[in-house]
Amino acid sequence: MHTFLTTLLLSGGLAVAAPAAAAADGFASGTTGGVAGPTVAVDTTDELLDAIDTVGPLVIQVSGTIAITSKQGVRPGKTIVGVGANPTITGGGFDFYRSSNVIVRNLTFVDAEDDAINIGQQSHHIWIDHNTFVRPVDGSVDIVRGADFVTVSWNHFAGTDKSMLLGHSDGASSTDVGHLRVTIHHNWFDGSRQRHPRVRFGEPVHVYNNLFEGNELYGVASTMNAGVVVEANTFTAVPHPCYSTSGYADSGPGRLVQRGNVFTGSGGCEAGGAVVEPRTYYAYTLDPVSLVPALVRAGAGAGRT
């Protein structure tokens, strides 16, 4: 559950507070990152790459604009947090291969030549919070190959194409069934096209209190017997808020429970089947769906922590 700043913003006559997340919640609960280790400040490519490849816990404070290439591996026990004015990673992204206990916060990822963040190969307890994603060539945040216990919260997907993929292929049941447990909350899918998320096999995937606006292709797709709970989100100008029982593209059908969502100028949410309830794993409190647009616009993205 999140806490709030004391500064209030006015929206539609209502006092709305911008959020300040104090600790990982949802499936990433218990993730502490590098808090047990020292703090290092980085503002060059070599410094950043050395820091994320360091063995042991470390808090990495990123400032300025740092150019990297491809997807660079992040070892366990790291907090990678932007500080100062507009900390930015450009040209590349972060890769998690059998990594764990990592926090990525308050960064803008621009023009990644592949994925901006790829969480794979049994990585677990990863918290992606308060970042902004702009123009990655492939995914903004992909969670694949047996990854587990991940929370993606308060991020701004600004006109991205493939925002979030859970489960990399229809043939990955042996690695992904029983994994890919992901919480996705208070994100702003702002003119982004698809995969918010697209899910194969994962259950439960919990999508709540997000703002979907002008998503050209679709909002959420549950496929290949995935189990997704979609609740208390707002969808505006989204032609297909949800796919599930009909499958999507070449992928077979999934299961999806939807409740308490608001649809404005949008199609219906295709739902069906039973899904394991997220409350089986963690407690959470929903924000009133009427406040979601103002809360998310005020709080999502880099620079809003």
UniProtKB/TrEMBL annotation:
Main location as per UniProt: secreted
InterPro entries, alphabetized: PbH1, Pec_lyase, Pectin_lyas_fold, Pectin_lyase_fold/virulence, PEL
Keyword terms, alphabetized: Carbohydrate metabolism, Lyase, Polysaccharide degradation, Secreted, Signal
Signal peptide (residue range): 1-23
One Pfam family it belongs to: Pectate_lyase_4
Keyword Membrane: no
Alphabetized GO MF terms: pectate lyase activity
Highest taxon of the lineage: Bacteria
Record's subcellular location: Secreted
Coiled coil: none
GO biological process terms on file: polysaccharide catabolic process
GO cellular component, one term: extracellular region
Domain Pectate lyase as annotated: residue spans: 35-241
Family: Belongs to the polysaccharide lyase 1 family.
PANTHER family registered for this protein in UniProt: PECTATE LYASE 18-RELATED, PECTATE LYASE 21-RELATED
Protein name, UniProt field: Pectate lyase
Annotated organism of origin: Actinoplanes cyaneus
Lineage: Bacteria, Bacillati, Actinomycetota, Actinomycetes, Micromonosporales
